[in-house]
Amino acid sequence: MTETAGKPSTRRGSRTKGLTIERIHTTEGVHPYDEVTWEKRDVVQQNWKSGETIFEQRGVEFPDFWSVNASTIVTTKYFRGAVGSPERESGLKQLIDRVVLTYVKAGKDNGYFAADTDAEIFEHELTYALLHQIFSFNSPVWFNVGTASPQQVSACFILSVDDSMDSILNWYKEEGFIFKGGSGAGLNLSRIRSSKELLSSGGTASGPVSFMRGADASAGTIKSGGATRRAAKMVVLDVDHPDIEEFVETKAREEHKIRALRDAGFDMDLGGADITSVQYQNANNSVRVNDEFMRAVDEGTEFGLTSRKDGSVIETVDARELMGKIAKAAWECADPGIQYDGTINDWHTNPETGRITASNPCSEYMSLDNSSCNLASLNLLKFLKDDDTFDAERFQKVAELVITAMDISICFADFPTEAIGDTTRDYRQLGIGYANLGALLMATGHGYDSDGGRALAASITSLLTGASYKRSAELAGIVGAYNGYARNADAHKRVMRKHQAANDQIRTIHTMDKDIHAVATKAWDAVVKVGEKNGYRNAQASVLAPTGTIGFMMDCDTTGIEPDFSLVKFKKLVGGGSMQIVNLTIPRALKKLGYTEETIEAIVEYIADKGHVIDAPGLKQDHYEIFDTAMGARAIAPMGHVRMMAAVQPFLSGAISKTVNLPESASVEEIEDVYMQGWKLGLKALAVYRDNCKVGQPLSDGGSTAKDAKDAKDAAAAAPVEKVVEYRPLRRRMPKRRSSQTTSFAVGGAEGYLTAGTYEDGDLGELFLKFGKQGSTLAGLMDAFSIAISIALQHGVPLETYVEKFTNLRFEPAGMTDDPDVRMAQSIMDYVFRRLALDYLDFDTRSFMGIHTAEERARQLETGSYEASSTDSDDSDYDDDSYSQGVATNEVKEVKSEVATKDETITDQSGAGAASARAVDATVHSSAELMEKFQGKASDAPMCMTCGTKMRPAGSCYVCEGCGSTSGCS
Asked: Which ranges form a coiled coil (predicted)?
């Protein structure tokens, strides 16, 4: 896209000013809708606990490459009109047209385009990008734009409150209206005088914490009444406020109350009958710390708490002791978070208008009081080309297209209050961001917590914001700079130079990030040059939001800046039902790392079984970090998250919605250190969560409470003692004469012999192992091992148990074998039990374990199935359009596959095989519950109040995989 400001266009219908829009994805004369295949789907959504159907709409139209989850969430969340009425939207075309055509009309009406043909190209490019899940606007756009309702486009709001009863009551009212509209708001209460100060009448002030009770009750009442989501709010208090200690400990004290009530038998689960008696549970709390306080903590000195009336010091506290209380409260209940005032306002483009004092509920939007921000996020994986290079030029063009649309939306948007509308129209704050960073890093072979991963993330973020401000400067030359620019011009240009200088400080490592960084450098050069001439259209351009619901709309594997949640995911099927699949970026990453098809197959099968990569066959330990995740056996360390945030923060207008997770064993001192490191590394905000620190997080069954447990315990104590019958295994001895076979083998150059004896029915009953050139000690150990295994087999221990335990056992000698069915072994034990599985286990059992003959593997590559063609008739119950990863159940019936999107369907090419997908247990309804199964412990996440599914983290919020509901404002 190029600017033609001040230059006449030669096109018909030209204006003297306007953008000339270039085509990125589309072809002249061809509408994007005509390039895809459409299909009708039935969307039926149930609450799995009650069995109640909570939504049903049949015959909705979507592209064939959209997943079931994406189409379900878009239909239930974003289609407008009463279900069953003629006005109800019935397909994606109607939804996209409703939004895009509104943007195009507003762009034409407000002089954004050089000619009508540019408006048409803009329409087609925006439609294509939305249709192909390249980006998405935030949820309020889909809720409201193009409808008869107020066309609110912003998800994030910042309010203000002064030290007067009128202002406090107005705060309650404004929050209520914002919650009713399905959005969230934040504000700073530090202007309200403390409980240690006097009122003008002579009495003592209530203090901000007391007024928080009323606002919390209001949010609790409204949270379930909206049509779209629960209320979300952020409450901030400055660290020098005299009531800071009371504020810090507010939610921690309530957590103590929750535990006491739970132990007394009350139902204190989230959504439980008695949880409403607990206060302050509807807001995120953050302490706004300044550099003076952080230096006092670092140096161990005292710090003054100041009067709200005259700024005098009311009380002096030990800074380290206060920081210790903040960390202890966060250790107990995850609140409060930290906002670093010095860094926030050092990067503020509008200091002459006012300071930044607060944020939205998820902490990514930070700007002036009484303002709002509309968000949009790009799907990073859509810019990864087939040759595993990142298309930086196309990424820049799409960012410029999207930021143009976002700015246009302010021209027609409605706002919940007059003050918010005035500030937003005067400063035009935008929040472009991205999703799928974690998936992109994994797919390209970068560890999330690695120098290479951080360099790539920094380069992409720098290019995103550089491209956005470049377009903002171009727009300023066409439709004018934002109204508040003139009084803030020097500060705004200073921040642009700071971004440019930060870009120069990026230390690239690989070709990919070097190429992206080169494009970003050119973009920032243009930002400073064009901005010096035109000014800027937008006071802010970029944030990193949670991308909860819209992440599902774009079929993203990961949200916002987050790493992958887990390596094994929960997925719904077109014809109903569900399966667990191995993250589809894993085979792509393994292929890029140079692994063979056979090794990729073995690794993916191992991950499907174990949920992690530790000791995966053939996987180098140096590559483990690439597959680290937010949860599980190789969870990313807390500082790994902090370092990633620090890598991208200098390239964002706002901040980052993210929670740093710590293990349950983490200490208060570790949380304090995370907060200190966040300050030293230049973050704007930081929140932590220690596993199992909260009580009100129910387990997957959603039904157990402390009262249930107490009743069960009492019943058990009162029950009569029953007679105990002890069962012992009986040994089935081998016959005197039995059949056996001996197999010679070589593993990594070491030769040996395996002799296996069977019963009359062919079941394995004994084995003997002998190695060439073995000494007496090793021979004795092998004899003892063989006898132990043989006796256990004769006592009924299943062979498959030993196969599970001894396959993938790693020690020398290891490597290539001379067996065509087992080409590589991690150890002699790994080979022996794979060979025994192939010889003595049925196809279904060993296929479930991912063990196949050479002939079966060759058949799978040719036909997509390990089984012979005679069994293909077993698959007739499944759609030809079902997923392309064959499903392995306990009976291991292979199913035919559904061809999904190009990004989604790489299993056949990678050799991922049958174990990449298998049927899930009936009690599993989400990836969070799947991880519970692998880890053997409950995950700390709330249950969705709409469909009963356990939610999973998305930034500093939670998102439901079942229906797309979020606990925040994404």
From this structure: none
